[in-house]
Amino acid sequence: MNELIREYILGMKIEDVILTGFVIEGDESGEFIPDLGLVFFRAGGRLFACESVRQFSALRLTFPDELFYNKVDDDVRYGKISVGNIIGLADHSVNNIVREIRIFNPEENNDEIICGALLFEFDGGRKLFLDPSWHFGIRIGGSEAYEEWLINKYSAGGEKLSITVIEK
């Protein structure tokens, strides 16, 4: 799996961030309800997915060939939305080349990594942190979110922290 991360993410520009979800249709308009437990990223023309698992206590990293949806009902209409520009990752003026990935408390399987959180560091020092333990789904933040997570999760000393660093 580390080889896939090196090949598909490291040294690549994050081109987009995509949320999937479903649409509640009303009389005149519909409302898109994003699945905040599932976030897709596009880098180097490939997708990788981060999905909250184990009742929002872990994150699963996979490399699907296409977007997928967590089905809620057969009669529901599913949709997607690009949020890369909203969170500043799809801006072409920003250097979003992934220089390093930190994987916290990783468990590696053949085609996925289960971990406690992920931190992407970009050329230029900018950071993107994914925390699956937020009660609404995956929390996406920067350096501040990462530092807050470290303090809240590990400052009491009860839980052990293991970090795998993959860099280009």
Radius of gyration: 16 Å
- State the helical fraction: 10-25%
Profile the largest sheet.
7 strands, antiparallel
Mean pLDDT: 86
- Counted by DSSP, the helix tally is 2
Widest sheet: strand ordering = 5-1-2-3-4-8-7
Distance between the termini: 15 Å
Shape: globular
Which structural class do you get from the secondary structure elements? mainly beta
- Low-pLDDT sequence parts: none
- Secondary-structure element series: HEEEEEEEEEEEHE
Question: Could you explain how this protein is built, in words?
Answer:
With 168 residues, the chain is mainly beta. It has two helices and twelve strands, in the order αβββββββββββαβ. A hairpin with a 4-residue loop joins β1 and β2 (30-43). The chain has helices spanning 2-8, 143-154; strands spanning 14-25, 30-43, 46-53, 58-62, 77-82, 98-104, 107-108, 113-115, 117-122, 127-134, 137-141, 163-167. It has one domain (2-167).
Quick summary:
With 168 residues, the chain is mainly beta. It has helices at 2-8, 143-154; strands spanning 14-25, 30-43, 46-53, 58-62, 77-82, 98-104, 107-108, 113-115, 117-122, 127-134, 137-141, 163-167.
Spell out the key features of this protein.
168 residues, mainly beta, seven-stranded antiparallel beta sheet, 2 helices, 48% strand, globular
Chart the SSEs and their pairings:
Layout (H helix, E strand, L loop, with lengths): L1 H7 L5 E12 L4 E14 L2 E8 L4 E5 L14 E6 L15 E7 L2 E2 L4 E3 L1 E6 L4 E8 L2 E5 L1 H12 L8 E5 L1
Antiparallel strand pairs: 1-2, 1-5, 2-3, 3-4, 4-8, 6-9, 6-12, 7-8, 9-10, 10-11
